[in-house]
Fold:
Amino acid sequence: MNKKIGVYICHCGGNISDYVDVEKVRQSVESEAGVLLSKTTLFACADSNQQEMVDDIKDQHLDGIVVASCSPKLHLLTFRAVAERAGLNKYNYVHANIREQGSWAHSDNKPGATEKAIKLVKSAIAKVRNAEALEPVKVESVKAVAVIGAGVAGMRAAIELAEAGSEVFLIEREFFVGGRVSQWDDLCITPETGKELVTRLYDEVMKHKHVTLFTGAELAEYSGSVGNFSLKVKVTPRHFKLQCDPGALKKAIEVCPVEVPDEFNFNITMRKAIYHNYPSEYPQLPAIDMKNCTRCGACEKVCDSIDLSQKEEIINLKVGSVLVATGFDPYEPKPGEFGYGEMDNVVTLPQFKRIVHYCVDKLTYKGKEIKNIAYIYCVGSRQVDGENKYCSRYCCTSNIHTAITVKKKYKNIHNFHFNRGIRTYGKAEVWYDESSRLGDIYLQSFEHDPPVVENRNGQTIVKIKDVLTADKELEVVADLVVLVTGMVPRKDNSIGSLLKIPRGRDKFFNEIHMKLRPVETVIDGVTIAGAGQGPKNIMESMNSALAAATKSFSLVASGALELEPTVAKVDTSACSWCGKCEEACPFSAIDRVGQNGNSIAHVNASVCKGCGMCLPVCPENALDLIGLSDVDMESMIDALIPNI
Amino acid sequence: MALGNVTSSPKILVFSTEKISDPAIDMAGLLKLHYPPTVYTLPVPCSSAIKPRWILHALEQGFDGVFIAADGTDCPYGESCTEKTGAIVSMTQQMMKEKGMDPARLKMAAICSVCSEPFVRHVKSFTEYLSKPSN
Structure:
């Protein structure tokens, strides 16, 4: 049967048409066999174009369509839905990827990109000519989601998932929940502290009987696919029994001989090997840091709750989706970067926040009272020559909020902000205004001319050529220099490596599309939320957590998923049963059955995963994948063949 | 921006895999890691599904080389993928020898879902190999 095919070639605003001559592509394919209409469109995905396609399919009685645009990972579902709305079987639409594998990959060679796009579209037309109407395969999906990371984003996502009706396994690597937010006091915009926010979320998590929280737990192994992932979680013991007498615990901490830098306070204080980060921290049971514990046994003698014999456990879980919310690390300045690590009064913003937390009446650091504070912005962000080209979004607001807090909390504080343009966007602009009203001084330079920190006669001087006063050279004698550091991806990328989540140019986890599919990854069933995906403030992390929870839930909600109908099919006239396909199938989807006195292979479509491993092993070439037959493949190859 | 490259560069057919190597090839584009536009990709579910006849068809009909961007150990369908894809390559190379073709015109490498740079390196060096007059 000759198909009536419609071909749509997308400009993608300019993402494609700046490099690919889309009109030339259209002209080159318009006379291909079966092509009834061919159009270029500014945005194929736009509602107006989708409607035009629906109208075309109905009016022109099209029975096949090709869309040449971005990667099918982005819009395959969009155009399948268009086909369905127009009453066309969705497998009669074929996608040609002329952006990621065309215009972008060959933006250095416009004629080459155009030539390749023509062939890719012809290849898609060849496939749609053979396409059949198919029905998707339905598989079971486990109604459970694993949320990795119990920071604010992870906990919010867990609550949402539990409320929607999913079983949730909340897996936290640390012994305590809350992540970075638990390290912060007053938060911007509302007077609530980070600890209060964490407590509120934790209480809500604990209310849900369908949420199981694992602390000291790491994902060790992972296998399977969307709807049916198998996880192995390694749980490290806290070495505490469930009930703990506060008096005995206090004594145990006192007698512990080990002192290590306290990472919770960014190493500005020390802690014991038995610890909790702050008194009301959740879960309220303390933990023993076995990496540093000498196993001297002194604590066990004074506290009955300690049990050094507890062993590591491996827990097996089955889930339908995995939501990753593993957060960020603060940027660690390089030794000597604005005097960091070399001058003892240069600290980072996260360290400064902890100093402010501990100083009650008077702001002091290393025994010296602090009055003049120089804040240097964009340290580790917006780097012209470094790796971190991006803006970390939260730091301007967070720093100005901290500077106001300091001014209100202590007397005679003078704040000097050495910035590169303030980005207190949205509601946070009021804090910039308040800081200016309180008398904070703002000095600005461009990226090529940053401020300089130097030691002169025992004094710390910060110099700047200030663009706001016509490049006047200004100097500030600072008691403390605060480096306003941005966000960087977690140094430990073990979870990303295990799940194979792609990372973008900024090295944060990469979504499929920042606007259209902002919480999905190319690994089906794995979603991302929070600052692990890129710098975000708490509100933005919450938004992404809710979006990711909804997306993950959509994959497990009904207990079933629709998968591609690409399953294996036996040509019963060619098969003479040798058993090689049965041997090759990793899912035991192929059986031997009798037909007219002979044995032949039979594919169980509900078990077949469509991998195609049985195809090349058949000596009679009696196996094909539906939608990927020899005719499909060879006609697509023929269309790609150069200069034909 | 040389038009000459379009027709003179060796033509390579890449078999990618939908879940693993195709995302890496997409990301190479996103990151503007350029490679010759005479490299064409056809995605398949798994690299162990590639029939030798498709490879031979491509080579006989005019492609200079075929590159299998294999799943390797990341294959979502099971651990046997590496071995099975390897067997397909050996079998096809044997068939190529019998037909008097240079077996090095078929190349395979494991390309994970984030291996954009290795992919570009592989197709560039394969292009270079196929460009040599002796090949």
